[in-house]
Specification:
Largest sheet: 9 strands, mixed
Number of strands: 17
Shape: globular
Radius of gyration: 24 Å
Number of helices: 19
Length: 551
């Protein structure tokens, strides 16, 4: 085990995606093993404002902070407001923009990192990554170099690659780990509607990066993978992608686990599930003017608004096909919970909800809960309109788009994502590109059976656990998906929902129980061993590297 661990990510105290869940749920397990010998490093976006995820503590690392200021490192130190409350250093990376070209020049000279074609968020991420590397260098020499022989720095995603390379050059006695949660070029290939899986063995990552204008991000990701002491990813499916597109085989697979702390127990679980269902049905009534009974099957999809990659297109299409299924004898209420470019809650809907009344007439455009800045070009609402999915009263299946972060303050539901997830009967994630899949894992943790695909890391794992293809009765329906079977996937999703509508209470309870059992197997206490393996590999390779360097 390392004596000390630094871990850097764009999502430390910055809740924007799945990596936040990876880090924040694992932190408690690491804290138990290495009390305050784990330090997370994140970007300081909240200068002058209160960050609810960051608890500043000026007594932590007080002497080093004063030294860091003299080195023109602008940091704040405190604790992450999550279970375990690990130590966090937030760094202001803005000062480094003035020497950006020098930083990029050194990265090219040392590691052939191509930054000339960087644009958008590339500069911002790179300056943060460089600043994080400087933080580690400073604190290591001040507090660790004489007493800690085994120090690890783990960098997450291409956004932190520059820092990992900086550390390898300037603090070579620190073992480096780089974890890609999804390759930038693989995601881009899928996002540009090119078939990834059929031609994976024939793609050249460098060539595709040039074609798709991804050269800078691909370059830092590729070069970091080749130069760290231990290169890792989160699933077998992404491991194949790394081997083909980054030309580097992973040293370890770090599957994503979770902590069960946030899942309510016993009577509290029942209470929260009842409250979630009541709120979902209340919003549906206020929006559509249709009274849906409690036995309505509530289904949902969620995640990033990647229309094809996350299977949002499949979800909408499947719900439309279900509407025309003759033997559907139960109401289905479907929610698309993905954050879009929303412009606040609909005032007409908000007014109805505040009145507390029950309605029998719909609002105008009763398929969306929040206003959008730009309706033209919004793919979810455009597809629903094209399919005439306008929540007509005679339709058995109703579909509602919720284009906001469910943080408890959205103005309509005013409940957090987890507090609403618990009310689902079924969650559906028919992803085309899904390196792991936290949303299905979270779903089964809340005893909600889910649908995923064979192209997701989680789906592959669920099949592996069962020893054959997993079905909804097992808690997870894993649908076979490839580059060209979109129609089959839509029908499989439709058929799975139809099966759920016909299940009796005993069958439903069994599926929910099996979902929960599978989730227990993915607790961090089980998956943390993969990280221990990565630490061992990194430290051994660092020691070999240092021996060769010194002899």
């Amino acid at each position: 085990m390392p004596d000390f661990i630094f871990e850097s990510s764009w999502e430390v105290c910055n809740k924007v995606g799945g990596i936040y869940t990876v880090l924040s749920t694992r932190a408690k397990t690491l804290q138990t093993v290495l009390k305050d010998k784990v330090v997370f490093i994140g970007p300081d976006f909240w200068q002058g404002k209160e960050n609810p995820l960051f608890l500043e503590d000026n007594t932590l690392f007080d002497a080093w902070r004063k030294k860091a200021e003299k080195e023109e490192l602008h940091v704040r130190v405190g604790r992450w407001n999550i279970p375990g409350q690990p130590i966090v250093v937030l760094v202001d990376f803005n000062p480094y923009f003035t020497i950006k070209n020098d930083i990029y020049g050194s990265a090219y000279a040392d590691y052939q990192v191509e930054s000339l074609h960087g644009y958008g968020d590339y500069d911002e991420a790179s300056m943060f990554s460089y600043a994080a590397g400087r933080v580690v260098e400073s604190y290591y020499h001040y507090a660790l170099s004489k007493k800690c022989k085994q120090v690890v720095y783990q960098a997450h995603e291409w956004m932190t690659g520059l820092g990992a390379l900086y550390i390898k050059k300037h603090v070579p006695e620190i073992a480096t780990i780089f974890t890609t949660h999804a390759t930038s070029i693989g995601r881009s290939i899928c996002g540009n509607n090119k078939p990834l899986y059929t031609y994976l063995n024939n793609y050249n990552g460098n060539q595709m990066a040039q074609e798709l204008n991804m050269e800078a991000k691909h370059s830092i990701e590729r070069q970091t993978a080749h130069n760290v002491d231990c290169f890792t990813t989160v699933s077998d499916v992404t491991g194949l992608e790394c081997e083909e597109l980054l030309d580097k085989k992973c040293d370890a697979i770090l599957m994503n686990g979770f902590e069960a702390d946030f899942v309510p127990k016993a009577a509290q679980f029942t209470k929260k599930r009842k409250a979630a269902r009541a709120r979902l049905l209340e919003v549906a009534n206020a929006l559509m003017g249709t009274e849906l009974k409690d036995e309505t099957l509530i289904v949902a999809t969620s995640g990033r608004y990647e229309f094809k990659n996350k299977g949002i297109d499949v979800f909408i299409d499947a719900m439309n096909r279900l509407n025309y299924t003759e033997d559907l004898n139960r109401d289905v209420l479907a929610f698309i919970e993905v954050p879009g470019w929303q412009a606040g809650p609909r005032e007409d809907l908000k007014g109805r909800l505040e009145s507390g009344m029950t309605y029998n007439t719909p609002l105008d455009f009763p398929i969306i809960t929040h206003n959008l800045h730009q309706y033209d070009g919004d793919r979810a609402t455009e597809m629903m309109k094209y399919l005439n999915m306008l929540n007509q009263g005679d339709r058995k299946v109703k579909c509602i788009f919720v284009p906001c972060y469910l943080d408890g303050q959205d103005g309509i539901f005013n409940m957090s994502y987890y507090d609403l997830l618990i009310g689902n009967d079924l969650s559906i994630y028919p992803s085309y590109y899904e390196p792991w899949g936290y949303t299905p894992l979270e779903s089964v943790a809340f005893k909600v059976p889910c649908v995923t695909t064979s192209l997701s890391g989680f789906g592959m794992w669920a099949n592996k656990v069962k020893g054959e293809q997993s079905h909804i009765e097992d808690g997870v329906e894993v649908i076979e998906r490839d580059d060209y079977n979109y129609d089959n996937v839509c029908n499989a999703v439709k058929d799975t929902v139809l099966r759920m509508t016909k299940m009796n209470k005993k069958e439903t309870d069994a599926a929910r129980k099996n979902a929960s059992k599978l989730a227990e197997m993915a607790l961090w206490k089980n998956f943390i061993t993969y990280y221990y393996d990565a630490y061992r590999v990194a430290i051994e390779n660092m020691k070999t590297r240092m021996y060769l360097r010194n002899n």
